[in-house]
Design a protein that fits this description.
Elements (H helix, E strand, L loop, with lengths): L9 E5 L2 H4 L12 H6 L18 H15 L3 E5 L2 H4 L9 H16 L3 E7 L5 H4 L9 H16 L5 E6 L1 H10 L12 H23 L3 E7 L3 E3 L4 H24 L5 H6 L8 H7 L5 E5 L4 E5 L7 E3 L17 H14 L4 E6 L17 H19 L4 E7 L18 E3 L6 E3 L1 H11 L7
Parallel strand pairs: 1-2, 1-11, 2-3, 3-4, 4-5, 5-7, 6-8, 7-10, 10-11
Antiparallel strand pairs: 8-9, 12-13
Helix pairs in contact: 3-5, 7-9, 8-9, 9-12, 13-14, 14-15
This protein binds beta-D-glucopyranose.
Beta-D-glucopyranose binds next to loops.
Length: 447
């Protein structure tokens, strides 16, 4: 069969600032909520693991771009640490921080690698958290002003911008369950944080339209929700789970409203939103980014806020983060986005898996057959969505490097490149060589 991937399909890899950069306070940067969270043993699950060094990408960026080039990457999705650019979150610009990202972008371009820049991948400046963070309605203006600084400096060299990475995780992890920064556990805060994130997204897109001449979009992590049975109770649970994770962000961004299940779920914690907020949130987008890792089978279960609980798939393979390997879900998700929101260009902005790799290279090699298989089947699932008429334009593997898996620390390795966290040496795994071949063949060679 011929390759379903168009010739200009963009093959790349993704990372995020706090997970790889290290040197979080270098050159005048302001601390982020992740700096605080990772240094607090009461909050961090992997106590002692912090982003202080991480992959030392802040010093090794040139070497890392050379590595991308050797692997044949055509695109690199990375995020900017807000506090490097604006140490207090607003106001004073730190030129040294801005210069770091400018050098990185120029180096990517010099190597024919297209930058995809994410403005927010979870590292809110601590100074803004002190003002309430995403609970403060001013956060929409803070974020748009921060965006303007980067648009002014880099638009043109950066042609694909992302406002937020995964607002669902920011809220569910950061404000409802507390597993991620800033570590709050509050049912009343969660809808407010979500709503302000979406207002911030809208405000940044609006700001981009004033001066930006290229493309801007939103990245969401979505999972297909399948009902465990045909019973009306399980079907309703499925709809709630879908509303909570998948539609809570896409409905307001694309349709200008929330799914009705949210008000039902959150009850008295669900505010009456000002109507004008939806005009701000719903901006024309140039693309959507879909991060896909797994699926979810759901049944009615009153012990959860959603009144929907997961059904474990005992027969299936799972990654070391406990996520079921389910490639068909990626096809289903991409088709679902098109059917629900129309024919907007899509990028798979993250997809990948943590597995137990050999801890150290043996004769310079790391064999990671499970990851190779994961990539093979998931890339094929993207091809299947394209065959079914979905306009998918690129695939960004998560992740370029083993890195800080947030509160789980360095124990979960998602990289196609192994990082020795003692010496910081990088060794491409078998999956990196596999992915290189996929890119070189334009997606035709998946064996
Ligand atoms: C995030 C990444 C994270 C990955 C694996 C996504 O939710 O954007 O930062 O490392 O999933 O958990």
């Amino acid at each position: 069969m011929t390759s379903p991937f168009p010739d200009d399909f963009l093959w790349g890899a993704a990372t995020a600032a706090y997970q790889i950069e290290g040197s979080p306070l270098a050159d005048g940067a302001g601390a982020s909520i992740w700096q605080r969270f990772s240094h607090d043993p009461r909050l961090m699950a992997a106590k002692g693991d912090t982003g202080d060094v991480a992959c030392d990408h802040y010093n090794r960026w040139k070497e890392d771009v050379a590595l991308m080039k050797r692997l044949g990457l055509q695109a690199y999705r990375f995020s900017v640490a807000w506090g490097r650019v604006l140490p207090e979150g607003t106001g004073r610009v730190n030129q040294a921080g801005l210069d770091f990202y400018e050098r990185l972008v120029d180096e990517l371009l010099a190597n024919d690698i297209e930058p995809l820049l994410t403005l927010y991948h979870w590292d809110l400046p601590a100074a803004l958290d002190d003002k309430g963070g995403w609970l403060n309605r001013d956060s929409a203006d803070w974020f748009a002003d921060y965006g303007r600084v980067l648009f002014d400096r880099l638009d043109g060299r950066v042609k694909k911008w992302v406002t937020l990475n995964e607002p669902w995780v920011v809220t569910d992890g950061g404000y409802l369950h507390g597993a991620l920064a800033p570590g709050h556990r509050n049912m009343f805060e969660a809808p407010i944080a979500s709503h302000n994130l979406m207002r911030a997204h809208g405000a940044a897109v609006k700001a981009y339209r004033e001066t930006g001449a290229h493309e801007i979009g939103l990245v969401v992590n979505i999972e297909p929700k399948y009902a465990a049975t045909d019973s009306p109770a399980d079907q309703a649970a499925r709809a709630r789970a879908e509303a909570y994770m998948n539609r809570q962000y896409l409905d307001p961004a694309m349709l200008g409203r929330y799914p009705p299940e949210l008000a039902e779920m959150f009850g008295e914690a669900w505010p009456d939103w000002p109507a004008e907020d939806f005009a701000l949130i719903r901006q024309r987008l140039d693309f959507l980014g879909v991060n896909y890792y797994t699926r979810n089978v759901t049944r009615a279960d009153d012990s959860f806020l959603l009144r929907a609980g997961p059904v474990e798939q005992k027969h299936a393979s799972h990654t070391t983060t406990g996520w079921e390997v389910f490639p068909q879900g990626l096809t289903d998700m991409l088709v679902w986005v098109k059917e629900s929101y129309g024919d907007i260009p899509l990028y798979v902005t993250e997809n990948g898996a943590a597995f137990y790799d050999p801890p150290q290279p043996i004769d310079g090699r790391i064999d990671d057959p499970l990851r190779v298989d994961y990539l093979k089947t998931h890339i094929a699932a993207v091809g299947e969505a394209i065959r079914r008429g979905v306009d998918v334009r690129g695939y960004m593997l998560w992740s370029l490097l083993d890195n800080l898996e947030w509160s789980l620390g360095y124990s979960k390795r998602f990289g196609m490149v192994h990082v020795d966290f003692e010496t910081l040496a990088r060794t491409p795994k078998a999956s990196a060589h596999f992915y290189s071949d996929v890119i070189a063949s334009g997606g035709a060679n998946l064996d």
